[in-house]
Structures are given as C-alpha cells and as structure tokens.
Amino acid sequence: MPDDPLVPVVGSVVEAAPRQLVLDLPHPVGEDLADFLPAPSNQAALDAVLRWPAWPAPACLMVGPPGSGKTHLAKIWSRRAGAVCLQGHDLWEPAEPLRRLGDAAACVVDEADDMADEALLFHLYNRIAERRGSLLLTAGRPLAAWDLRLPDLRSRLMTAWPVRIGPPDDELLAALLVKQFADRQLRVDGDVVAFLVARIERSFAAARMVVRALDRASLRARRPVTLPLARLVLEELEQQQQTEQGAR
Predict the structure, then answer these.
(1) Domain endpoint, select from 139, 164, 189
(2) How deeply is 231 buried, as exposed, middle or buried, from its count of CB atoms within 10 A (0-12, 13-18, 19+)?
(3) Closest residue by Cα to residue 233 from 11, 29, 77
(4) How many CA within 13 A on the CB side of residue 163?
(5) What is this structure's pTM?
(6) How far apart are CA 87 and CA 70, in angstroms?
(7) pLDDT tens, 1-28?
(8) Which of 88, 93, 230, 245 is the right S-S partner for 114, CB 3.0 to 4.6 Å?
C-alpha cells in the first residue's frame, strides 16, 4: 500500500466537516522491558535477550516480520549489554562501523539484511569475537534469503544463534492494537478492538497501518474511534487495496 492510504478514507468520513490539515506527528512509544508485549510468537526472542550473557554463540540472529518488536528487543538488549547500535544501512562507509564501535565489546546491527557492504559486517563480527563480546543482528529475512556473496561472512553467520518471531495470535494482535491506540492517546472500546482483530490481516504491519488510519480518520472527522468509524475505514482500505491490485 502507499505511504498514506488514508486520503480516500478521510474524504468519505468528513464530507460534512470543514477541511483541516492533519499532521502525522511522531508519538512517544515505550521502549523499556515493561513496554514489551510477551506472547508465544516472540517468547524465544525475548528469552534470548534476557538470557544474555549466557548465549550459546558470540552472535544472535533475530528474525521476524516488520513491526514484530525486533528493534524494541534490540534496544532492551543494548542497554543491558552496553552495546553500540548500528543500522544495516550504516555498513557502507569504510572503517565507520569500527570507529563507532570503539572499545565496546557488544554491538547491535538492526536490519542487518539491509547492509550495503558484507566485508564491513565480516570485520565487525571478527572484532567482536576477538573481544569475546556479543553481536545481536536483527533481520526481516532468514539467513538463507540474504544472497550473501562473501563465503567467510556466511560461515560466521551460520554459527549465530538463530531466534525467530512469528506472526501474532489473536491475543497478541488485540494487545498490539490497544497499545498502539494508547501510544497515540486514543481511547478505544473493547468492541472496536474485537471487531478489528476479527477482520484485519494477522500481521504486525496490518495492526500498525489500521491504527494509523483510524487515528487520521478520527482527527479529520473530529469524532472518536467508534465501531461505525472502524467499519468505514476498513471498507475504504479494502476497496483501495482491490483497486491497487486491479491496476497491477
């Protein structure tokens, strides 16, 4: 879907309301351990974070879909381990990752499968191993799908401790919706959450998208997030998705 799938939704919701500018402002999101929502689908990843430093390997590879909490867990672990935090796309400038690592013996590479330079990740892995430290890699794809061209890096990563985050079950999906509404300071009744859980795709990305959609529609319509508004927003999003699929 496009970055802003809410335009047609908003138009139909607020035909009688004065036009107003709706800004998609950033909203505070809790990043502590207490803010993480544990569930069977993410328990292995949470256990890996809490098990440190008693890891079975120098590196841990955490794989999960977008929005599944990988970055949240990585931030929790980085504070526990005193780790330097890098993004996969940071691994492109010669010597920069190693300069940022400094004397640290722990490092996070978030979205490691998005790296631009395999050699830099290889050298970073070796530097951490030399210091008998720990490296946490997060990725949206399993290692087999990375299309690595550097055999030495592949051999290193194959020794990493693999942990996976699966799609959310109904209970976790409901909790995610409640949390994301709360992050946006939206009060939503339980019947709205139950309605959404029964109808949206079982994915973290879908939960994030529909909450954002309802937030923007609510602001435009100047009305709370109710069951009729939720129904209308889902109908509009489904129609837009069908239109996009037909245009492909």
Answers:
(1) 164
(2) middle
(3) 11
(4) 27
(5) 0.77
(6) 12
(7) 333 333 334 444 433 334 443 334 444 4
(8) 88
